[in-house]
Amino acid sequence: MTQTAPRAESPLAPAADPRAFPTGRWAEVCGVVGGLAGMAIADLLAWALAPSGAPVPAVGSMIIDLLPAGLVNWGKETLGTADKPVLLVIIVLGVLALCGLAGRLEQRRAYGGGLVFAAVAAVGLVAVLTGGQSSIRAVVPTVGGLLLGYLLLRALMLRRERWSLAAAGPDPDAARMARRTFLRWTGVVAAAAAVGAVAGRALVATAGAVEEARSRFRLPTPTRRDPLPAGVDLGQEGLSPYVTPNADFYRIDTALQVPILSADDWSLTITGMVDREITLSFADLVALPLVEHVATLTCVSNEVGGDLIGNAVWLGLPIRQLLAEAGPRAGADMVLSTSEDGWTAGTPLEALTDPDRLALLAVGMNGEALPLEHGYPVRMVVPGLYGYVSATKWVRELKVTTFAEDQGYWTPLGWAAQGPIKTGSRIDVPRRRSAAAGPVVVAGVAWDQHTGIAKVEVGIDGDWREAELAEVTGPDTWRQWRYRWDATPGSHEVAVRATNAEGSTQTADLAAPAPDGASGWHTITVDIG
Ligand SMILES: Nc1nc2c(c(=O)[nH]1)N[C@H]1C(S)=C(S)[C@@H](COP(=O)(O)O)O[C@H]1N2
Ligand SMILES: [Mo]
């Protein structure tokens, strides 16, 4: 303890002398700890937001794609199933080495290490985006992880700097304190990063395995389809397509984290007021004759003119078949469905047993297995009812019961126990609310699931004219409409109203979504120049 001159210090065996200066090694340690924390955060964000947005496995896939096939096969032969874990470990070690370098650069120049972190993030982003992910959610893990990792690096470097200054100062106690603060911070962040990294990796790996099983799953051939006539889509630019692509389909749920549920672990039980309780596995379900049905899903929270509505081709088992097998007892009037994440919906029993209504236990959406966020492996789709009382995703239990006895998740929170869909319509075109005088296309969609749309009118400054209607597969979907307007200069109020197949016209009365769905005519102002 007599030595007072600054001297080199090993991070593994820190010198006892508090006034010894932190060396460049410690800057590398800051970089490595920041990098590890960054990767842990990226994995945890990926698990929470978008498993396929995890950068490390994405970089792994990119490397496999870039390597010559011979080398990839050699890796498989020599390492067997360990090839992927080995590749991931190599990537993690490579990133940590670069982060160590970042620490060194940061020591030399403020923000110098940021360049390395940015470069690492760029490679991760390229890997995620070329892996077929284009949503904003998928880029958040990489950007968020490396940004936060870099901020932690800066925070540690700051403490290292303070230690360095104190060590050069006259007060050995101050130097000892500064050193201890730095080591404590570094140790705590490193430990948290290590725990987070292991947990994050395990969570993402599970999610990745489920996602992979999902993408490998081949949908069974339906025993019956809704033919899709060409006339269902007017092909009008700016108009919502008749079938909404999965990537554009609205998503509503209370889950903070999409339940990651493997098909092998899934089962459904039918309980409550039934003669026979039934338990069904995924293998049981897909072995049964499944049918395809086009149906529009609508959220009760959809505002007038809102976009919480989408149309898809669903593949599944008619729920009435299962219920018939279970044998609902007299007096039952509701089915309370419960999801993997404990959410519930109360659906009128009648809507599920109605021979004329195809309520499905769905496994397929637009020709692929349900996307994880839309309920993989199995969800409910009931034409004619808002999603909150019918469309349970990740469904695990159907309890036959009564409205008097049970209520779904949203009912005690102020939403109606029963949620039939109200007649609605929306203007999609013109997207820009201004146009030149002359022919202007006004177009949109109208819906009244399970009754169907018979007429759509467009009101120009209160003068109603009938719109052209596209074809539909049946009463369970929205219907495209179009009106060719000969627009005159000035500011015009353009409104839409639909009439259903029973002759009832959409009400003009404005109502907010709560408690049982919005109403009123979607009206826009268009400036004609
Ligand atoms: N498990 C679960 N299922 C759910 C919900 C939910 O919060 N949790 N929300 C419902 C609501 S309110 C709607 S509108 C639809 C939306 O389905 P989507 O996200 O596939 O569009 O799912 C329904 N199913
Ligand atoms: Mo909803």
Automatic annotation (TrEMBL):
Protein name: Molybdopterin-dependent oxidoreductase
Matching Pfam families: Oxidored_molyb
Lineage: superkingdom: Bacteria
Domain Oxidoreductase molybdopterin-binding: 256-410
Alphabetical UniProt keywords: Membrane, Transmembrane, Transmembrane helix
Entry keyword rRNA-binding: no
Transmembrane intervals: 26-49, 86-103, 110-129, 135-153, 182-204
